[in-house]
Amino acid sequence: MMLAAVVVSPWAWALFLLFVVVMLALDLGVFHRESHSVRPREALLWSGVWITLALTFNVGVWIWLGGDKALEFLTGYVIEYSLSVDNIFVFAIIFSAFRVPTNLQHRVLFWGILSALVLRAAMIVLGVALLERFHWLIYVFGAFLVLTGIKLLVQKEKHPEEGLGFRIVRRLIPATTRYDGQRFFTIENGKRVATPLFVTLVLIEITDVIFAVDSIPAIFAVTMDPFIVFTSNIFAILGLRSLYFLLADAVEKFHYLKIGLAAVLIFVGIKMAAIDVLKLPSAVSLPIIVGLLGASIWASLARARRLAAAGTASEVPRELP
Q1: Contacts of 267 (CB under 8 A, 6+ apart)
Q2: 183 partner at 20 to 30 Å CA-CA among 88, 110, 254, 302?
Q3: In 10 A of CB 189, how many CB atoms?
Q4: For residue 288, what is the DSSP state?
Q5: Is there a contact between 207 and 129 (Cβ–Cβ < 8 Å)?
Q6: Helix, strand, or coil here: 192?
Q7: Using an 8 Å Cβ cutoff, are 260 and 292 in contact?
């Protein structure tokens, strides 16, 4: 059941935004001052840091706003964090297509996610305002999520250069195919042009906006409290970079994960569309969402083990009769 929004002090908003700014400054200015390839061990450490911070914040929400709001935050965070995994598949394709050096990928994701924080904040404010004024939009959002889930099941990945966004960027922004260190722009033949790093950044931005159109309505199926929606979204986005570097080399192993993500979108879409008929509390929604994701991950890993075993068996030489 979605609870009414709690009036949160402006100081709470200010402190949370200050926390985000400080963490981003530490990330870029201290821990990643020098461009380097992020190894799985470092990515695992940072993923643990961001998840721990999110869960610690969740405890604070429980103490400050109560158990119901804490459960809404946790459910929203799980939805947003899990749906962000789909971004990873696309990020990996974009980085591969433009041959972005591994030591520059963190820089692209940092600035991409920094812009995403601002864009998502604007989309959340707009979404809450629209739903408060036009209740019938909740049915539209619900139907949209169901259709998006179905589309995710049947749609094949496109090469970035086949997308409309790439063609628009190429037409509007003069660019070169030559990298110039970690610079987004360089001078070529006396003209200032964008490097492939900037083109990659723009495509990352476009990708995030597209996914935000899916994920933000999904959390409205859990709560329309602006503070809960915003904070759960931000924590999921902050942890996206480390999650990318942790899973980028293993995305092919999660063969059935898209099915799980599609099932989550369809479930929350139906939940949202049926909000006036059947109200499922977060205590029911959260186990269902975790179960759908867990089943898809288990099936993916089981498939990977079977393929590995089959490959190993095929490499064993047979004895001659």
Answers
A1: 285, 288, 289, 292
A2: 88
A3: 6
A4: H
A5: no
A6: strand
A7: yes
Cβ proximity of 221 and 142 under 8 Å = yes
Locate 30 and state its tokens: 């201290």
What's the token pair of residue 222?
């859990």
Give the DSSP H or E segment for 252.
Answer: none
Q: Which two tokens stand for residue 43?
A: 């990515």
Long-range contacts of 294-298, Cβ-Cβ distance < 8 Å, separation of 24 or more = 295/260, 296/254, 296/256, 296/257, 296/258, 296/259, 296/260, 296/261, 296/263, 297/254, 297/256, 297/257, 297/260
- Residue 52: count other Cβ atoms within 10 Å of its Cβ: 10
Report the half-sphere exposure of 212 (CA within 13 A, side-chain side).
25
Q: Which of 288, 292, 274 is nearest to 2 (CA)?
A: 274
Token pair 């899990």 in the structure block, residue: 82
Q: Which residue has the higher pLDDT, 166 or 224?
A: 224
The pLDDT of residue 157: 61
pLDDT in tens, 20-71: 888 877 766 555 556 666 777 888 888 888 999 999 999 999 999 888 899 9
Asked if 228 and 73 count as a contact pair (C-beta separation under 8 A), the reply is: yes
User: Can you read off the two tokens belonging to residue 206?
Assistant: 């476009």
3-state secondary structure of 38: coil
Q: Is 181 left (phi over 0), alpha (psi -120 to 50) or beta?
A: left
Q: What are the angstrom distances between the C-alpha of 250 and each of 150, 175, 243, 246, 309? A: 24, 31, 11, 8, 17
The first and second tokens of residue 245, run together, are 């570097």
Q: β-strands 185-188, 191-194: how paired?
A: antiparallel
pLDDT at residue number 70: 92
pLDDT at 238 over 90: no
β-strand partners of 194: 175, 185
